[in-house]
Specification:
Layout: E1 20-24, H1 31-45, E2 52-56, H2 59-69, E3 74-78, H3 95-100, E4 105-108, H4 111-116, H5 121-134, E5 137-142, H6 146-150, H7 154-165, E6 178-181, H8 195-212, H9 215-220, E7 222-226, H10 234-238, E8 245-248, H11 255-258
Parallel strand pairs: 1-2, 1-8, 2-3, 3-4, 4-5, 5-6, 6-7, 7-8
The protein binds 1,3-dihydroxyacetonephosphate (13P).
Length: 265
């Protein structure tokens, strides 16, 4: 059943949503280029505190990248984690291990996990709870496919993903949660959602949050946009009222395309 969002007109809360720019490296780069890129981002960000920046290297480089960035304003996160705390789960990585190597963040429910590896809404919800229990800040991803958009089921799909992804998450834990709207048709395709499309969906998601929690949580929770974000379109996307940052794939892999994103203003 479609979740009924709550209207947010005139909510009137101080939102304090600091922009977050996140670079999801996916299964790219190797040790040397990963460390070089992380160092370049650290230099460029310096002591600036008008936005937050987080990098998401492949698991095997997390430790080294986190060491390199320790004490800087650039944070590190993983691209996934296990829903279980420990045990016989060959090939999996526990949230507590990510904390152990210096991660603050974890991306959960990315569309590539959902569509290429069959992760369902319930598993994403279990991972969210495991990540919170270990002390990580989850970025919970939602997004519709092109067929779903064309069938006008975007709202139904993303509200179901969001409700399941946050199942059992207490109100106070929402301070650590970030939502990312990544339309599947815009990921790695060079097609970006227009600012109007992103604005509509972000406002809708905020309404879903208000229904799940309350209007204050909805007004305070950051919602990132992801899908072919580039230096030439970030400004228009970030100008949208409900867009609080970007989750960047391809353009986060090179200093030439990622560093300009930090200067989107
Ligand atoms: P692209 O920026 O390459 O489209 O990837 C977006 C994404 O999936 C970030 O998580």
């Amino acid at each position: 059943m479609e979740f009924q969002p709550v209207g947010l007109t005139g909510a009137g809360f101080t939102t304090g949503r600091k922009p977050l720019l996140a670079g999801n490296w996916k299964m790219n780069l190797e040790r040397k280029s990963a460390l070089g890129l992380a160092a370049a981002v650290r230099e460029r960000l310096g002591e600036r505190d008008d936005c937050e920046v987080a990098l998401f290297p492949p698991y095997v480089y997390l430790d080294e990248v986190a060491r390199l960035l320790a004490g800087s304003r650039v944070k590190v996160g993983a691209q996934n984690c296990c829903d279980e705390a420990s045990g016989a789960f060959t090939g999996e990585i526990a949230a507590s291990m990510l904390v152990d190597v210096g991660c603050d963040w974890v991306i959960l429910g990315h569309s590539e996990r959902r569509h290429l590896y069959g992760e369902g809404d319930a598993l994403v919800g279990a991972k969210t709870k495991a990540a919170l229990a270990a002390g990580l800040a989850p970025i919970v991803c939602v997004g519709e496919t092109l067929a779903q958009r064309e069938a006008k089921s975007t709202e139904q799909v993303i509200s179901a993903q969001l409700v399941a992804g946050l199942a059992g998450v207490e109100r106070r834990s929402m301070e650590r949660i970030v939502i990312a709207y990544e339309p599947v048709w815009a990921i790695g395709t060079g097609k970006t959602a227009s600012p109007e499309q992103a604005g509509e969906v972000h406002a809708y998601l905020r309404g879903v949050l208000a229904g799940l929690y309350d209007r204050e949580v909805a007004a305070r929770t950051r919602i990132l946009y992801g899908g072919s974000v580039k230096p030439d379109n970030i400004q228009a996307l970030m100008a949208v009222k409900d867009v609080d940052g970007c989750l960047v794939g391809g353009a986060s892999l090179k200093a030439e395309t990622f560093l300009p994103l930090l200067e989107y203003r």
